[in-house]
Amino acid sequence: MLRRGRRGVRGGRAVARGARHGVVARGRAGAPRGGGDGGGAAGAGRAGPGPGAARRARGGGGAAEVPARAAARAVGGAGVRARDAVGVPGDPGGGGRGAGRRVPRPRGGRGVAGRLRRGVAGRLRGGGGTRRAGVAARAAAGRGRPAVRGVRVLRRGRPRVRLGRFRAAAQGAGGPGRAVRARPLDRRGRPAVRVPGARGPGGAVVVTVQLKLVDADDLYVSWRWEHLPAEPRVLVLPRERVAGVLAEWAAAVPSPLPGEGALAALRRSLAEGPLVDRAREADLSTRLAAALIPAQLAGELNSALARGVRPHLRVLPSPSTALVPWEALRVDDGTRAVHDLDISVLPPATVANDPDRAVSPFDPRGPVVEVLDPRVPGFPDDSALGAVLGAPRRTEVARDALEGALARASRFVYVGHVTTGGHGLDARLHLSCTAATTGRAALLGDHRPLTAADVVLGHRPGAPRPWRIPNRVALIACESGGDLRFAEPSGLVTAMVNGGAEHVTATRWTLPTDEGLRRLVPAFPATPVLPSIVRAVDEAHRAPVPAAALNEWQRGLATRWEETGDPTCSPLLWGAFTTTWAPVR
């Protein structure tokens, strides 16, 4: 709680010094240890509104989907010491760089107010017309009416801080009964969320919001903040409002459309599609964000960002939204959602919360099983199941040896081929297994793939013998995370979670090889990009919080793409990856 006073910190709590300037320390966000339907926030990146997250403190906005009573007051942040605002993920007691140092008082309007003064008004499309609205959050030190419970702000000044924003404005249907009352709002009718004041490791405030989408005739969107479980929000998006842009995105990525072959899909996406052209991709990603991110949710995210808190967005997509790259959604000029949020996938509750599921322990120094581009029997290097990394393949790994190695491992990294079948459990991982190997998949010549069902039930005849899966799994392959395309979410990611994995990084769509990129993308550099992707994912799984570390890598590439249009930094590549997090309950 902010206490009255003029100096630094008392008893380890922040004292409101320089409150009227809205100063918040710069540093790294902390990480929680769990919570909610499978987790709390995974912190990473910069937490305070310093030259990073604060400059991009964008919320989305405009009016809520339905009228609601004012339930909170939006305020700006007061000055705090770095130790109380930052923390390193996984460090139970540490702060970020410069922990414990007092934040200097800004001069000449250079603090948060100065950096965020350029905030722009967003266009909110809903109902029957266009409404132009700006957002201005008061650093309400003079009012003493914070939106955060348990926090008092000194009565010193009333500066106005203009915020950037999520320019997302998905609105519910206009008729009554189409949307549940969404609240709370601040006293001006703007969305706000109360941050409970609880801090994660290192002193950082951590908040997590779960976003779930359900397909019916329309698209049902619900979300709830894990610290406000009694206040869920529900919104109905008419299918005609989202179907067009979702179809555009499906046609932009290199996964085959119905009746389309793999090579034709690659040519459509890489040679002619918008994802390798910065202007066209930005337009599509902006429209996708505007269609899917509710204005109410965007405003609540902005409320948290204004407090110097990086929210953690956990998404459970529906089949129609399974290809949506939430990290790459363009929420403002030059800003992607991953710039302001940590983002991960929420596993199906029926799997993550299974009482018989046991999460495998993680030892940072434990064994790592790496299967890199294994040779597939009967498929030469230049075939459909040929070399992924370009060099002639040397690795030969069959399922019996892999099962034994995973039983003792802490991590598993697979780089190779994954193909989908008629249902999720038929998703296939291709090893060096011959026709003599037992399993549930039909033969492909002299090769028998390993299916998700083989992992869940065991690949040998007789009683089920599920595989034991390490705590962390990276599946760097085409559509390895395609579970959510099915009405009953199941597939390789679900199988790994069921077998004990807590963190599973996989891809949403087909991942082109370097050879395919060079042949099909105009003027694509000759330098291979896939090895650097493999290294980035592997390094993320060495970090205390893999999802947050993966997001940090994505932020860097997103910034370069926005600034330079470098095709090696296109969301075509980094936007394919996401991490499913299924922590210990």
Automatic annotation (TrEMBL):
Residues 1-65, 83-113 are annotated as: Disordered. Residues 12-31 have a biased composition (Low complexity). Residues 32-51 have a biased composition (Gly residues). Residues 285-578 form the CHAT domain. It holds the Pfam family CHAT. InterPro entries: CHAT_dom. Residues 1-10, 99-108 have a biased composition (Basic residues). This is CHAT domain-containing protein.
